[in-house]
Each structure stands twice: as C-alpha cells, then as structure tokens.
C-alpha cells in the first residue's frame, strides 16, 4: 500500500498549487481521505478531508474558500487545489486515508499516510 504525494513547490503569495496523492495497493473510494500539513516546529494539523463517496468535504477555517479537495476515482488519485496561498500555508503537506468518517481530523486514526510534499509560499 502506498500513497505518493506530489505537486509541492515554491510559489509567491497569492499564487496557486495543486497537490496530488496517487494511491497504489488500495482503492481510495473505499476510504475517507484527509490532507494534513506540518510547519517547522509545529504539530501536524488537519487541513481538510473528503468522504469515501466523494460527496462530502470539510475544511479548517483557515483554508475554507481557498482550498478544494477532490478525487478522481478512475485515476485513484486525491487532489488538493490551493489558491490565494499565504506565507502561513508553508508546510509539508501529507495525504492520508482511513476507513471511517468519524475522527477525520485526528492524525492517529489514519491507517495509511503519504510521504509528504513541501509547499513554500514566499511573501
């Protein structure tokens, strides 16, 4: 089982990036997925998540309206579209999958994690 995150990079404030999380060995549509991020010296935090049906998404307030989570089941790939990026969005971003919706924001509840991709937003 592998989740491969990619798409990070360096972008100016106000710019956009799209992160991808390609899955192998598991079918994302059988799981609920979350995106997390971890800035230097800080704990890993929940950014948002999507239900196994793809019909429900949730986001933390700090990214609501700027970030969008989606999934392409044919490609078995999860996405995080990030717009209007701010320097405080700088972090390593991780994708993760879990079988239940309850506790979506809780890192310890996840069965599978990607390796992370660095996002740096310059001011």
Structure explained in plain terms:
0% of the residues lie in helices and 50% in strands. By secondary structure, it is mainly β. Strands 2, 4, 5, 6, 9, 10 and 11 form a seven-stranded mixed sheet that branches. The protein has a four-stranded antiparallel sheet with strand order 1-3-8-7, with no helix packed on it. 33% of the residues are buried.
The main β sheet shows up as:
7 strands, mixed
- % residues in beta strands: over 45%
Count of helices? 0
H/E topology pattern: EEEEEEEEEEE
Structural class: mainly beta
Taking pLDDT < 50 over at least 5 consecutive residues as the criterion, the unreliable ranges are none
State the end-to-end distance. 37 Å
- Percent helix: under 10%
Spatial shape: globular
Cα-atom radius of gyration: 13 Å
* Strand segment tally: 11
The whole-number mean of residue pLDDT values reads 97
Assembly state:
single chain
Topology:
Elements lengths: L1 E5 L2 E4 L4 E8 L7 E7 L6 E6 L6 E3 L7 E6 L4 E6 L8 E8 L13 E2 L3 E6 L1
Parallel strand pairs: 2-11
Antiparallel strand pairs: 1-3, 3-8, 4-5, 4-9, 5-6, 7-8, 9-10, 9-11
């Amino acid at each position: 089982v592998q989740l491969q995150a990619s798409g990070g990079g360096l972008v100016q404030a106000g710019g956009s990036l799209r992160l991808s999380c390609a899955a192998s060995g598991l079918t994302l549509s059988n799981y609920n997925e979350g995106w997390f991020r971890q800035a230097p010296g800080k704990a890993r935090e929940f950014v948002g998540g999507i239900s196994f049906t793809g019909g429900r998404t949730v986001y933390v307030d700090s990214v609501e309206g700027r970030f969008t989570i989606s999934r392409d089941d044919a490609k078995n790939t999860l996405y995080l579209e990030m717009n209007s990026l701010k320097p405080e969005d700088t972090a390593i971003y991780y994708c993760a999958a879990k079988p239940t919706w309850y506790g979506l924001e809780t890192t310890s509840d996840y069965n599978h994690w990607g390796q992370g991709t660095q996002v740096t937003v310059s001011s």
